[in-house]
Structure formats: C-alpha cells, structure tokens
C-alpha cells in the first residue's frame, strides 16, 4: 500500500519553478503507487503565529485561517514535501510562516516521518539552498520521529517556467519514485 504524501507549494507565482519541481516529484511518487495531494498556498490565507501557545493546550491554532487546515493535513501525512523558491538564500517567508503555524503538531501524534525539501533559485551555486536546509532541519529537530529524507535543488532558474529543461526535474521525479 502506498504512502500518503502531502506536497506543499510555497510559491505565489503560477507555473513557478519550485511548483514545477514539485509536480515532477509528484509524478514519480504517483508512478510508485503513492497517494499524493498538493496544496498551493497561492490562494490561501496564512497569518503569522502570534506566539500565544494556546495550541499547546487545544491542539489547534486560535487563528481561523487556512493554516489550520494545512496543519491538519500535515498531521495525517506519512511524508511531507516542501517546495519553495529561495529568497535571499533562505526559504520563502510563506514557508516559514506555515512552519511556525504548524506548532500545534509539536504535541500531536503526527504521522510524518520523512520530509523532503525541493527548492529553486536564480543563483546557480549549490550553496544557495543551505539557509533553507538549515531552517528545515531546525524545524524537523523538534519532531523526533521525523527526518530530512532528501532535498532537490535547481539553481540558475529565475523566470517562471525556466526550469523546464533543468536536470533537477528528473532528479525530483526519481526522488518521488523512491519515497
């Protein structure tokens, strides 16, 4: 039986490079027989965490927006896949905001074990993903049953859709297939 995989695309652009990378990962995961759901935050409202810590007692954030639904889907997934553009050598602000809003999961019986990071950047250097990797690893370190299972980076892509012939698409497909 396949795994339940949740892919969250954090780009606000249509046909963004990071979303196309996510779609390639999804293609591989589906080919391997997994159930895959993608959430694009493009049309979602996710407010900043207020730091009130009420979620530690209620298991749910007090903010009534799309962040609660996404956190609920994260809770039930076997595998989480975060697809983000790299802004200033770090994950997008949208991604960081959602990771903060996933605080209710900290005390919950979450299912996810494997987490993947898919990232794209205008900078061609492989080190462009390092800040995002550090941030994701920090988040994962709060979930002792989870691990960073892999990362795929596509550098040198800036304009929407520019990734179309990039070798990272095949790597993302294969990574998805091997989940």
Automatic annotation (TrEMBL):
Residues 4-131 form the NADPH-dependent FMN reductase-like domain. The keyword Transport does not apply. Keywords: Flavoprotein, FMN. The keyword DNA-binding does not apply. Transmembrane segments: none annotated. PANTHER family: NAD(P)H-DEPENDENT FMN-CONTAINING OXIDOREDUCTASE YWQN-RELATED (PTHR43278:SF4). This is NAD(P)H-dependent oxidoreductase. It comes from Blautia hominis.
